[in-house]
Structure formats: C-alpha cells, structure tokens
Known about the structure:
Helix content is 30%, strand content 24%. The chain has 7 helices and 10 strands. The strands form 2 sheets. An 8-stranded mixed beta sheet has the order 3-10-9-6-7-8-4-5. The chain has a two-stranded antiparallel ribbon with strand order 1-2.
Amino acid sequence: VSIFSACAEGGNRQVGEAGIKDNSVDAAQLDSLSSRTTPDSAEDEAHELDTIDISQYRKEVPPLKIRLVDGKGYTYKDLSKDKQTVLVYFLPDCPECQAFTEALTKRLPGLLDKQFVMISFTDIKQIRSFDDKYHLSGHPNMKIGSEGYTFVVQKYYQIEHFPFVCCYDKDGKLYRVINPRLDPSSIAALL
Length: 191
C-alpha cells in the first residue's frame, strides 16, 4: 500500500519503517499519548487530552531544509527570532490534513504573531497544488514546501500521524505537540 492511497482511503494513518498502515487506538493508548500532569481544573483536564507529553521529543527546532512552492530554499536558520513557530508536517492528499488546513486558513489572519512552516516529503508539484487550493503561501506568516525524501523532520520527531503540529517559543524551544488524533478543526483552534 502506498502512502498516497492509504491517505485517500481515510481512517487513522500511521507511517513507520514498513510504510503506512491502519492504526486503530483504544482509550488506554490514547491516554499514554496525553500529557502526564495532574489537572488542577477542567481547563487543565481538557489541555491534558489535546497535548502529547513532549518529554520524548528533542526540544530544538529540527534542522529543516525545504524547497518552498516558489522554488526557493528555506532552512531553520531562516526562521524569525521574534515570533513563535508552528511546524506542521502533513500530506497533501490526507483528508485530516486538508480539513486542518481549511480550518487553519480561516484563523491565519489572527495569528500574525506566529510563523507557520508546513512541511511534507511529497513531490513539490503536489504541494504546489495544495497551496493553490488553500492559498497558503499568500500569507506573510506562512512557508510551505517539501523536504523531499530526506525525511529529516519526519525522522527527527518519528512522525507517524498526520497532521503533526508542534509549537516552539521565540527562543526555538519546543513547548507543545498537539495530539494528532484530535478533530482537525480542534487542532487548528488550539493554535
């Protein structure tokens, strides 16, 4: 099964060493993905389910190097030092990624204090088509491109579910990974 046909079929997608497979999850597995803190309030309890424990992840921005849809190169060194960074790893034909992107584009004008970098490993032509559909590169705080088959970012975080959304502070330190099993519009609302 190719990664593209697996995404087109819907359902939970997981990519690993052997490619993509269907991955159902039970409540105990979902709990293990969630934050490990004890909630002090209902708001904290809701936050517990929408955020993955980040202790398993490296804290620095990955050494990303992507080709943007306009053909220019972009690396982690090009990130603005005065804005928080939201890194989104996605697949252009993934239904959840499409729904997330649709919800995100509605919110982008109100998120100018953050910079967004959307990365995929797919061919730049597919990413251009995705960009044409959602008009992402027209936003001043958005970069979208492909890391090609280097899989640097995918390997850096061992990304298995899409969209994968992580947030960094202005110093480039990871502070949040949003649970990819949430509804796509809920993921966008958390940004």
